[in-house]
Amino acid sequence: MQHSRIVITGVGLTSPNGNTLEEYRKNLLDGVARIQMADLRYIGTVPAGVCDFDPKKYQTRKELRVGTRAGSVAIYCAREAIDDSRLDFENYDKSRIGVYVGTTEHGNVETEHEVYNISKFDYDTKFWTHHHNPRTVANNPAGEITINMGITGPHYTIGAACAAGNAGLIQALQMLRLGEVDFALAGGVSESTQSFGIFAGFKSQGALGTHPTDVNKTSRPFDKSRNGIVVSEGGCIYTLERLEDAQARGAKILGEIVGYRINSDASDYVLPNPERQAECMRQALAVAGMEPGEVDIVNTHATSTPMGDIQEMKAIAEVFSDCPSTYINNTKGYIGHCMGAAGALELAGNLPSFQDNIIHPTINVEELDPECDLPNLVINEPRKVDAVKVILNNSFGMLGINSALIIKKFED
Amino acid sequence: MTEDQVKQIVIDIIDEIAPDEDTTGLKPEVNLRDQMDLDSMDFLDIVMELRKQHGIEVPEEDYPKLASLDSCAEYLTPKFNAK
């Protein structure tokens, strides 16, 4: 079957260490992590990645009072992406735009806030807000984008645990190829840092990261002393178009999505399965019609958990065992785990490599875990290479959902 | 409590729930929705804040009595004074 080629023409993001791609990329190349101690209800102070974008840039104070944090993150990223794409948005047919936003979860924050609110009224439910349902419906972050921007095409969120960012992009690609929409806003968002339950759940699981002296070293994938995740918020939304449409309007093209795959471990609620992860990467390569050795960068999902990092490296070793020019990196040492935004944000951090041929390193590795030691893992210092033309972006999640996205430098 | 004091309570609540609106020049006899960008959810917020902050209950059939500052004062002042 002949498919339309789908290209990325804009990006808007907020991460704990940057509110534009330029700022974020600079901090990745300069090794600047930005994690802070956040004070959360019940659980106390915990390391967290918090974004400092200005929500009032695109929302009224009333919108901020009524909506959700995930909605604000989504709106900021979507508006920035449209701006970056230089689409004539005012005059574009808004019914032909689709909005596909990945989320790990949605509604925990709002529900926790509301339970706390009624606890002040002896749990009398007549004090439960009428805003609860519109805030917690699963489509909320995507829906808030459409309300804020007047987009009348389809919108929904993709619930895909921490593979959600990739899943949002894959959904958009498919809808563009089906002709359901002509332009898509797609990616992932997270507001998880406002939910004590997410932190407490990871803590009970023994998967919440700590560091004895430096909060910015808490998230340290592949380091021998790593001990868990840093939960972060963030967002990254891309504009996607069919190649012919992008070229017709003279858009700049940041990359082409040439391969993708989502599969399922079908084995455990939380433990990853390297066999299925490897299968996911191989199937994405098959879609792209590529051999593993053609990939220049593999962005790992590794979250700084003792077991998860090893499992992913096993999968990568299996697929890329004989690929001397394939480099491996990771972004979570800088920004923690941005949950539903992770896959989309981490891809954005690597996209500028198509222009500068520099691969940002995984940081905070003081003693490399021998079980994570792959030959081309880029550690602590950026690596300049001759050319970066293909990025494979891994993103995995609970319940055994795996995703791999392959982006190619655009060549007509 | 006087009707003017009740009007000020309602204005304070509107300032909280509609922070983008300017409430300084509100005409007491004119419908609030004709002077400001308020929707039905905002009126539910007014009802909720009266309940939370002041223990005042407004049954659904009485919502139309919150239409203007004057009608709010007329309807709510006896409720405040009966507390």
Topology readout:
The complex is a heterodimer of chains A (412) and B (83).
Chain A: E1 6-14, H1 21-30, E2 36-40, E3 44-49, H2 61-66, H3 69-85, E4 97-103, H4 108-119, H5 132-136, H6 140-149, E5 155-159, H7 164-178, E6 183-190, H8 196-204, E7 231-232, E8 234-242, H9 243-248, E9 255-264, H10 274-288, E10 297-299, H11 306-319, E11 327-329, H12 332-335, H13 342-350, H14 353-356, E12 358-359, E13 383-384, E14 390-397, E15 401-408
Parallel strand pairs in A: 3-7, 4-5, 4-6, 10-11, 10-14
Antiparallel strand pairs in A: 1-8, 1-9, 2-3, 6-8, 9-15, 12-13, 14-15
Helix pairs in contact in A: 3-6, 7-13, 10-11
Chain B: H1 3-17, H2 32-35, H3 40-54, H4 69-81
- Give the largest interface: A-B, 11 and 12 residues
Number of helices of chain B: 4
Integer-rounded radius of gyration of chain A: 20 Å
The main sheet of chain A orders its strands as 5-4-6-8-1-9-15-14-10-11
- What is the SS-derived class of chain B? mainly alpha
Order of helix and strand elements from N to C terminus of chain A: EHEEHHEHHHEHEHEEHEHEHEHHHEEEE
Query: What is the straight-line distance between the termini of chain B?
Result: 10 Å
Mind summarizing the main beta sheet of chain A? 10 strands, mixed
CATH classification, class level of the largest domain in chain A: Alpha Beta
